[in-house]
Model the fold of this input.
Amino acid sequence: MAQSVHVTAGNSRLVRTQLSRRSLVAIAAAAIAATVVLFVATPLQGLVGFVLIAAVLYILAQTVISNHVEGRRAAINRLVTTLVVACACAAVLPLVAVLGFTIVKGLAVLNLSFLTHTMRGVAEQDPYGGIYHAIIGTLEQVGLATLMAVPFGLLVAIYLVEYSAGRLGRVVSFFVDVMTGLPSIVAGLFIFALWILALGQSFSGFAGSLALAILMLPTVVRSAEEMLKIVPDSLREGGYALGIPKWITILRIVLPTALAGIVTGVMLAIARVTGETAPLLLTVFGNPALNFNPFSGAQASLPLFVFGEAGLPNETAINRAWAAALVLIMIVLVFNIIARVIARFAGVRS
Amino acid sequence: MDEPESAKVSMARSSEAVPSPASQPPKTNGTQSKDMPQAKDLDSRPRRRADAVFRMLAQGSGVALLVIMAAIAAFLILQAIPALNADTTNFFTTLNWAPDGTPSSFGIAALAFGSLLTSLLALVMSVPVAVGVALAISHYSPRWLAGPLAYVVDLLAAVPSVVFGLWGLIYLVPGLIGPSNFLSTYFGFIPLFETNGTYGKSIFAASVVLAVMIIPIIAAISREVFVQTPRDHIEAAWAIGATKWEMVRTAILPYGRSGVVSATVLGFGRAIGETIAVALVLSANYEITLHILQPGGNTIAANIANRYGEAGNIGRGALIASGLVLFIITLIVNFGARTIVRRGEREGA
Done:
């Protein structure tokens, strides 16, 4: 590499010619113009295709021209920079599209009556009906799952950080990682096979929350573990020096110190499982009517509602799906934002 | 800080006094003079028992987690066996799903193929973009933009899969008809892009949705590794006159390689297990075809969601058997990813 630097420095002035911003704008304009011509001349159509082809033409032209004016290394550098920017756009674009469409389509249907009515006796083409039953179902299922997964997950994290030194700890830690990759549908199938087929229970919100708890567990363990790990050892040693038993040291000193971070992790776990559909399909089953009792009988839930309505070949049903999706996204976002705010304003206190 | 400290001091005092007040003179509280009885106090029975109970509780939770993982495998196998026995055709090669018919006939071949194909295509599309995004956040964008960009990409991971499915069904599937038509007209000689002239819910659409969904996962992990590139490596590249790309190629990418690989494997695991979004954008059939642009295709997970409602006794067992296959695939994938991560950590350290 040093050699090539020497060569380029040798046969050019100290400051190499660079493409000006104005010439880049000109290249972009030419690329767009060429794309317009292409779309008029050939049967190509669609906004996505247009943007894609214009981008490809721009990158090609820029690289060729830059290669000619600035040299090969600068041209490759410029190409990669442009590609990185394009990648960032390509990643952000779907989010904007998904959120944008959901907000626009959802707001058209969303109103107070939609939030306070159920789908009992509502046919797919009826313009009324609502998601009250689904919101109740989702809140109960996620709430129950949190109640089960958080204490369990915390204990596992405490075991991993405070107690495990040997082989068992490594095995548990490894399987927490493996559990992170457990597909949500498999968690649903497991609860279905265990709770409904083997134990003969009925579909219920509780069955769903069992599946959700399994999905929450690794997230809670990992985040709590990370937080407990960064609690300074001096705090623990201080506790021991005062003769405080280990378990009280953990519960009264270590946990409170890491609390904010743990809460953040729990919030993110809640946000993640709130949007889960697949496991609920197999365990909660869905119900157009209101069922307050999560321990008996099929319940509704927001993701299931969206899935059900989206599958119907009917415009009003699909509009309902958009509105429910908007409510679902807002719930998930609220949990997410709470998590970030807690994380920002209170890390581990030390 | 102060509060728990003082609380624990008072707590310590009171708990020191409580266990065996009878064995001690009343005035020893907190003084050094009576060392031996105090040391005995620390080891007194009730306190040790509480400690042991808590330790058991924590350890028990760890063991319970292992039991859950074992139970998942056990119950899936248990419930799958009757259906597999009832299957009159080969489970691994049959291109059909009629478990409740007489005779019962179902097989995983087309589903497993569809799962692998959609996930691989999703990786092909998402890995370059995700690495690009990770680089953009870690080394290319100005600092004021890096934070928000990272946050937005993380948000992408928070959008529920059913919403991606809805978006894919209503906007992406129709939106891809044009590009699909273009690809098939001009590049139809490549088997992948060959079609029968119809377009719609296809493997291509499913892979695009999956790609969008796994970008944030791969990007987040890659970004974390890229950021950790030793300052020395980067400075060394600058010092010999490297351009930014040459710096990235010689310092950042080699350092982050194992991280990117394991992120890719994890993304693959996520893609292959994704259910609802795929179920909404695939038109289920049971053929093995490489023609990704035409309607068709199916995956193990999507098939479970689609056929669950109508399944009878054997049908449910059959779906559980397919879930077992999915479970095994993700187990292998995750084992692989974790092994790569561990090896990378060892080399890095």
User: Anything to note?
Assistant: Confidence is low (pLDDT under 50) at residues 1-11 of chain A.
